[in-house]
Amino acid sequence: MYDSGKIIPGIILFVGLFTFPLWSNLGKAAPAPKPELPKTEKVCVMDAAFMKTEHMVLLNDWRDKVVREANRVWVGPDGKEYQMSLQNSCMQCHASKTKFCDQCHNYAGVKPYCWECHLEPKENM
Amino acid sequence: MLEKALKGSQKYWSLLAALAVLSGIGFACFMLQLSQGLKITGMSRDVSWGFYIAQFTFLVGVAASAVMVVLPYYLHHVKDFGRITIMGEFLAVSAVTMCLLFIVVDLGQPMRLLNVLLHPTPNSILFWDMIVLNGYLFLNIVIGWTVLSAERKEVPPPKWVKPLIYISIPWAVSIHTVTAFLYAGLPGRHFWLTAIMAARFLASAFASGPSLLILLCYLLKKRTNFDPGDGAIKKLSQIVTYAMITSVFFLLLEVFTAFYSQIPGHMHGFVYQFVGYEGHGELVPFMWLSVLLSATALVLLVPPKFRNNEKLLKVACVAVFFGLWLEKGVGLVVTGFIPNVFDKVTPYVPTVPELGITIGVWATGFLILTILYKVAVGVKEEIGA
Amino acid sequence: MEKDRREFLKIGGISVLGLSALPVFEALAQGQGPKAMPDPRALQAGQWAMVVDMKKCWEEQEKRQCKDCMDACHKIHNVPTIPDPKREIKWIWLEEYKHAFPDQANEYAPEHVKESPFLLLCNHCSNPPCVQVCPTKATFKRAEDGVVLMDFHRCIGCRYCMAGCPYGARSFNWGDPREYLDPQQINQAFPTRRKGVVEKCNFCAERLAEGLPPACVEACKAKALVYGDITDPESEVRKILAGQYTLRRKIALGTGPNVYYII
């Protein structure tokens, strides 16, 4: 083989870099997320299964309704009314971003940019 | 064909390396801007567009000017342009790429760029600018590459490319017209609010673009076996001459309207540019230099005796290019904001990182241009044209 | 067979397009499912407008250098106080006569007019150039009540609206605005902005939605600020406009500003 002195180390380097995410996290299994739920309510806005998978879609939908369509009240399937507001509704009960939102977001490695503008509740208040 | 770009002399590689280093520096500055925000630039609440958008505007002109070789060659069968048409098209490709990059680096939220497509807004000129610029880039890549491939195989270009070439002619005009509309349709920005903005843009484009092309042709002739042919240069220099005369004429029309009408808003921009306004004269030396360069260019271009002299033509082309760059790439955009809507002056001076990004984008454009020209020259050498 | 395949492709196409939004549509389709509506307390108007009585304002300014409206607005909306005038964020601010009305400033106007500052804010134009130029509809004129609003989620920061606005009503976040907000003073009920987006006065859309007047109007003890529906002949603003001569900024431009000044 020509240039084996360059090719073989090159392949090793490539494989090493390519698998970096695998071996750098080896043996560091992250614990399953344990979001802390509010004690007062069991169901809020929509059922828990829906909220778990679709809350981001719902929030985007709320965003457009509030900002662009001047609709601020949401009537849930159970007929209950909510103010569509991340800061003023959701975070009133889910009062800790670190104990609720971040639990799954960190686990899933997502960084929603909500908090660049929206204020998280002041903890220990 | 791209393999032609992979074989080159030491000098070719050094040039590529130097351009890559500059664009790397620009990229580093851009990373800084991404993390810190546009506060690292000299722009402000009052002068909210600066060097980036000015370079963008100037380069749209360079891109549009490809039509000045495409149109005579394909519509009027001017054989002289046979060898340089591809050079004009590739120059357009690199110029439009720079335009798009300048738009991206100017955005406050570049990662949201695709919102322009997600929420198409036909009442916004910026939406149309995005369409015409991307369309023009696509047209020139496809046309340039296809025609060059055919040339390499020494067969006529495929039939389907003809309609694209015809479309690209009005399309070139459209990119600079739409870019002028960005400015010329805003109430309250008197310096820009002029119906001949698009005509001015096109005239200055057809002077600055071909003058750059002449200089590039001379460079290629000196460094490679590529010969654009004396006829091509001669015709291009005539185009530059007429376009430059028209460009200066249009500017004088603006000056007349502003100063004969005596409407303050229309005069203030020119006053700021040439004598300074309310104690601020940041642009004065640059604008007078622009005038000096333009005058020099006209003196050297108008008499055929001077224009046909290679040395003088080169000087004239440098003068045209930098004179118009100062007018459009430095003066025009910033002056639209000075004085501002409160009739106050907030001066604008670009910062070092801002210039770093600007140079980085230019370097990226010339990197692309070098590679494309290397391919084109390689093909021409191969077939012995 | 052919038809079935077409149906399948159609549904497939829609699913791919709206995959993420589908559950919401499904939920919405379930008859008495969730729906959105305006807050019943919300104030309605055809076009909101404001009258600024500068005489009353100047009296109060002379008495105690009053900045109540500005303080109230900027506090409620988490508008940062940035010392560098080149980077300032302004929703409501003061500007001298000759700068507020550069096209109609009268050289021999009374001294108190020439020297006293005017209160400026977004004019919520009837024909807003900022809305016309925005390439993403991030800024839009709300059909319901004519308020010119910003969707900060959508703004790409191109600043075309700043070039378009002839009133200097728009500010860009050149850096992170939170660096200039006091965490103790921050209003937890309203968001901040992030770097790279444009912002401006929103005519307190979030307060109108709850039946409250704009914060500046509420804060003004001199009653120098009056808001109302310009399309309603019975509204307070219309009565004032019918009763005395008022000024608007740069009307020759045809933008139709909806902020009126009494001097």
Question: Topology, please?
Answer:
The complex is a heterotrimer of chains A (125), B (385) and C (263).
Chain A: H1 4-18, H2 20-24, H3 48-69, E1 73-75, E2 81-83, H4 86-93, H5 101-108, H6 114-117
Antiparallel strand pairs in A: 1-2
Chain B: H1 10-36, H2 51-64, H3 67-75, H4 85-106, H5 115-118, H6 125-152, H7 161-184, H8 197-223, H9 230-261, H10 264-274, H11 284-301, H12 304-307, H13 310-335, H14 352-383
Helix pairs in contact in B: 1-14, 2-4, 2-7, 2-8, 2-13, 3-7, 4-6, 4-14, 6-7, 6-14, 7-8, 8-9, 8-13, 9-10, 9-11, 11-13
Chain C: H1 2-18, H2 22-29, E1 35-37, E2 48-53, H3 54-64, H4 68-76, E3 92-96, H5 97-100, H6 111-115, E4 117-121, H7 129-133, E5 139-141, E6 148-150, H8 160-164, E7 171-172, E8 198-199, H9 205-208, H10 215-219, E9 225-229, H11 236-243, E10 259-262
Parallel strand pairs in C: 2-10
Antiparallel strand pairs in C: 2-9, 3-4, 5-6, 7-8
Verbal overview:
The complex is a heterotrimer of chains A (125), B (385) and C (263). Helices cover 50% and strands 5% of the residues of chain A. Chain A is mainly alpha-helical. Chain B is mostly helical and 385 residues long. Chain B has helices at residues 10-36, 51-64, 67-75, 85-106, 115-118, 125-152, 161-184, 197-223, 230-261, 264-274, 284-301, 304-307, 310-335, 352-383. Chain B starts with 9 loop residues before the first helix and ends with a helix. Chain C is α+β, with helices and mostly antiparallel strands and 263 residues long. Chain C has two domains: 1-36; 48-262, Alpha-Beta Plaits (2-Layer Sandwich), CATH 3.30.70.20. Chain C has helices spanning 2-18, 22-29, 54-64, 68-76, 97-100, 111-115, 129-133, 160-164, 205-208, 215-219, 236-243, and strands spanning 35-37, 48-53, 92-96, 117-121, 139-141, 148-150, 171-172, 198-199, 225-229, 259-262. Chain C has a three-stranded mixed beta sheet with strand order 9-2-10. Chain C has a two-stranded antiparallel ribbon with strand order 3-4. In chain C, strands 5-6 form a two-stranded antiparallel ribbon. The interface between B and C is large, with 45 and 47 residues.
